[in-house]
Design brief:
Blueprint: H1 3-23, H2 25-35, H3 53-77, H4 87-117, H5 124-135, H6 137-140, H7 144-155, H8 165-181, H9 183-194, H10 206-222, H11 226-257
Protein name: Mitochondrial S-adenosylmethionine carrier protein
Main location: mitochondrion
Catalytic activity: S-adenosyl-L-homocysteine(out) + S-adenosyl-L-methionine(in) = S-adenosyl-L-homocysteine(in) + S-adenosyl-L-methionine(out)
Length: 259
Amino acid sequence: MDRPGFMASLVAGGVAGVSVDLILFPLDTIKTRLQSPQGFNKAGGFRGIYAGVPSAAVGSFPNAAAFFITYEYVKWFLHTDSSSYLTPMKHMLAASAGEVVACLIRVPSEVVKQRAQVSASTRTFQIFSNILYEEGIQGLYRGYKSTVLREALWSWRQDHVVDSWQSAVCGAFAGGFAAAVTTPLDVAKTRIMLAKAGSSTANGNVLSALHGVWQSQGLAGLFAGVFPRMAAISLGGFIFLGAYDHTHRLLLEVGRKSP
């Protein structure tokens, strides 16, 4: 990819990611509160639906940029003939690598955001400060393994070639299904991030977190928040594509007019 095209795609991807995160933030808050151990109403119900949005806003663009840069670099590093049967594997490996790197930014943002979502009366910066004071930097990376596992599995079903609205429709259906299937991992991630410091859940063991949810709430607990999650991811594909296309065309047009 040429440098102007690369930069346009990078910025457009970041803008699209921010747009999706901010527009669909209320659905994410509802999902988090449904998955929280204290239950939906005690976690805030429908009150303060934008609690934690500063964390999402700050982390969204660099997270998308980190993914895109890593994805493109690994794809270039594993360069193969475009007609090769290994091409799909190359894209999947590049996407997985991108998620591992992007999670270095996404997880701290997610930890702060989710704690703010279930503690709407507490300011985002105060939550961030409390985590650093009580748990240190490792507290910000609680749930890293479960997040990487969820995102890596998710990335293997994605087609990262943003080309048409027809693909967005297909992607919405596929995304909704994938969102439903990976909901237990999302529940485990939420429980680990929200767990009290020093508790057995806080150690980050995904299987232990899943087992705890199964014992206390059964199948319903493992799929808590599945409907807002499916809705957010299905709608997110359309919002992402619209924002990406518009921003990408605008940046290329500005680049052509520049001397």
